[in-house]
Amino acid sequence: MIKNYFKIAWRNLLKEREFTVLNLIGLSTGLACTLLIYLWVNDELHVDKYNEKDDRMYQIMANHKSEEGLETIHHTAGPLAASLAAEFPEVENAVTVLPASWFSDKGTVTFNDTHLKTGGQFVGKDYFNVFTCPVVDGDPKSIFRDNQTIGISHALALKLFRSTDNVVGKSIKWEHGEFGGIYNIGLVFEGNPVNAIEHFDVLFNFDLYVAKRPGMKSWSNSDPSTYVILKQGADNDQFNAKIKKFLATKDKNIDITLLAVKFSDKYLHGHFENGVQAGGRITYVRLFSVIALFILIIACINFMNLSTAKASGRMKEVGIKKAIGAMRRSLVVQYLGESVMMAFLALIVAIALVFILLPQFNQITGKNIAFVFDIKMIASALIITLVTGLIAGSYPAFYLSGFNTISVLKGAFKTSVSELWLRKGLVVFQFTISVIFIVSVLVVYRQIQFIQSKNLGYSRDNIIHFEIPMSMDSASLKKSEAFVSQLKELPGVSNVSSYYHDLTGSHGAVSDFQWPGKQPGKNIDFANLEVGYNFIETTGMELIAGRSFSQSDNSRNEIVFNEAAIKSMELKDPIGKTVKFWDQQRQIVGVVKDFNFESLYEKVKPCFFQTYPVMPNIMVKIQAGTETQTIARINQTFADFHKGNVFEYQFLDENYNALYASEQRIGILSQFFAALAILISCLGLFGLAAFTAQRRQKEIGIRKVVGATIQDVAMLLSVDFLKLIVIAMVIAFPLIGWAMNRWLQEFAYHAEIDINVFLVSAISICTLALVTVGYQAIKAAVMDPVKSLKSE
C-alpha cells in the first residue's frame, strides 16, 4: 500500500511539473531560511555557556543613581570580590577581572624577532575556580605567585614558539603602557571557545594592576568586574537582598547598590532599565525565530493554495477511489504522504542552499557557524520538515478527501464560497507578512542612515588612532612627547593628540565631586575622559564658554566640562570656578558643547576632561585625500621611535560604526529574509494567477470575441489580486508602525517614521504583485479566443 502511495505521489509530481517546481522552490526556500535562522539562534543561545559551573555563576553589577533613575554598569570596586568571598557564606568563590575589553588597544608581545599585537586581562587568584579555562601546561596557581609570571594561550604559544612544548619557564616582552616589561611564562591555557564574548591571549596577576594603580584598593573605584560562584542550593534572590547595600557598609558616602546577574544571561539579557534586566539581544533572537516561523508558514500556505487550486484535476480520482471502497482516512494519509514527500524533497534542496549560502551568512552575522550533521541537527531538521509537510498538506488532504463521490463522478462539483474565502484569506496573510517585512527593512535602514549621518558633536572623519608603548617614567614620557611633536611636522597631518580609553563608551567614572553650591546628598556620576594636549582641537569639538587646555605644567590643575555636566551641577558662570575630586582642586577653564561619547542608545551624560602632555593612544587628524601617503609616513615615524613594535591603526569612524554592528547586521538579515518572504509569496501568487487564468479561459475567449482588449482582460485578472494586496496593507501598516516605533524608542536619538515609508512599501508590493500576476494575465489575454472556446 505504501509503495503504491509513493508511486501515485511521484506520478502526480511529474504530471503537474509547473506546480511541482513552484511548490519545491517555495518549500525549499522556506526550509533553507528556517535552517539558517535555527543555526544563528542556536549559536546565540550558547554564547558564554562554556563554564562548567554556569548554573551558579553570577556577575556583580552596580546600580548608580542618576537623574533618570538607576543606571546599571558592569564595573565594580577592586576589593569587592575578596570581601564577598570572606563575608558571605553563600559565596563559594569570587574573582576580580579586568577584562580585555576594558583596554582600548592591544599590547605587543615580543619573543626574539617575533612581534604580535594581542589582548590581555588581569585576573584574581580564584580565576580558574570560577571560569572554565583548560590548562595545556603549567600550574594554574603559578601566575599568582608573583607579579612577573603570566599565562599565555595555546594559540599565542604556537605563534611565538611554533610549539607548546617546553614553553613554561620561557620569558617574553610585553608592551602596554606602564605594564610593559619582561614576564615569565608559568602557564599555557587552551583559550576561550569561539562562543565566548571575551577573547584574550595573556593572563596577568591582578595584583600587578593594583601595584601600578593603588587606586584599585579604594571602594570608590569602578574599573574591574566581579564574578562569583554561589554554593549549591544558595538562593540568588536572597543573596541579592543581602548584597544590595553592601558598599555602604564599607564607605557611607557611596550610594551604589549591587545586583548579582547570571553570567551567561548577560549576553542576551544585557539591557537594564532602572536597575532591572529588561531585554537585550534576546529580542532579536525571538524576532528571528518568529520570522523563521512566518516564512515557513508562507511556504506552507503556497502549498495549500496551489494544491486546493488544482484539486479539480483530481476530483475523479477521489470519486473512483471512494466508489470502490476507499476510506476517507486512507485518502488523508495518501495526500499527507504526498505533501511530506514534497517537504523532504525540499529539505534536500534546502540543505544544498544552506551549504551555498552559509559562508555569506557568516560574513553578514560576524559568526563562524558550521553546518554539522550531529544528532541534534539531524533531529531538528527532520522534525521541522515533517511538521512543515503535515501543515502544508493538512488542508489539501482533508479538502480532497471530503469530495462527495456522486457529485464528483457526475462532474457537478463546484468550488465553495468558503474555499474561495479561505484561499483569499491565506493570500492576504502572506502579503500582510511581506508588507511588514518591507516596512521593517525601510525603518531599520533609515535608523542606520541616521546613526551614520548624525552630528555627534565632534568630527570622526579622517582621524586614525593607534597605541604606542609608553610608561609613566620621565624618560618614556619625553620620548612619547617627542614622537607626538614629530608627527605634527609630517606632511598631510592636520593635528595630533592622545587619549586614554576611547570615544565610544569605554571611559572611567568619578562621583566624589565637590563644586561651589553643591547641595548636600547630591551625587553625579561624571564620565572621566583623560586626554592629551590638543584633543578638543583635533576632534573639532565646539567650545561654548572659556578656552581649551593650556599646554603648560599648570594644565594639570585645569578641567573642562560638557554642557550636561554644568547643567547637572546647576553652575552659573562656571568659568574660573574651582571643583575638587581625588583630593585635588581643578579650575574650570572651558565648557564644550554636548557630544555623544557613548552609543545613541544613551543620552549625553555629564563628563569632564582632564589633560596630560601625552597618553598611550595617539589620535591623528589627516588631511582629506592624503590618507595613503600620510599613514605611510606615520608608520615610518612609529618604526623609528618604537623599533620592534607593531603599528596597527584604526579609523575613528570604524569604532563608531562598530557600536551598531548588531543593528547593521540585523538590517542586512532583515533585507535578506524580507526578500525571501516576498519571493515565496510571489511564487504562490504566480501559481494562483496561472490557475485562475486557466479556469477562466472560456470567459476570456468570450470577452475577446465581443470586443474586450488585451488591457481589459489583463486588468480583469489583476484587479482581484490587487484588492487582496490592499487589504493586506490595511492590516499590516498599523501593526508594523506600532512595533517599529517601539523599537526606535530604545534609542535616545532616532529617525522618525513618516508617510513616505508606507508609500514606498505600498508602491513596492503593488508593483511586485502586478508584475507577478501581469505575466499570467497578459499570457491569457493574448491567447487565440478560438482555442480558448474549443478547449475542453
UniProtKB/TrEMBL annotation:
Provide the leader sequence positions. none
One MF term from GO for this chain?
Answer: transmembrane transporter activity
Alphabetical keyword list: Cell membrane, Membrane, Transmembrane, Transmembrane helix
Q: Name one GO cellular component term.
A: plasma membrane
The listed locations are: Cell membrane
Residue stretches in coiled coil: none
| Transmembrane annotation, as ranges | 21-41, 284-306, 335-358, 378-400, 421-445, 672-693, 713-737, 757-778
Q: Which Pfam families match?
A: FtsX, MacB_PCD
Topology of the protein relative to the lipid bilayer: Multi-pass membrane protein
The record's listing under PROSITE patterns reads: PROKAR_LIPOPROTEIN (PS51257)
- List, for all copies, the residue spans of the domain called MacB-like periplasmic core: 20-245, 432-630
Instruction: State the source organism's domain of life.
Output: Bacteria
The record's InterPro entries line, in alphabetical order, gives: ABC3_permease_C, MacB_PCD, Macrolide_Exporter_MacB
Q: Which residues form the ABC3 transporter permease C-terminal domain?
A: 290-402, 672-781
The name of this protein is: ABC transporter permease
